[in-house]
Amino acid sequence: MDKIVVNTAFGHVKIEAEDQKICRLDLTNEPTVSSSSPVLNQAANQIIRYFNGESIQFDLPLNPIGTTFQRAVWQALTEIPFGETRSYQAIASTIGNIKAVRAVGGAVNKNPIMIVIPCHRVIGKDGSLVGFYGGLELKQRLLDLEKR
Question: Is residue 23 annotated as a catalytic residue, yes or no?
Answer without folding.
Answer: no
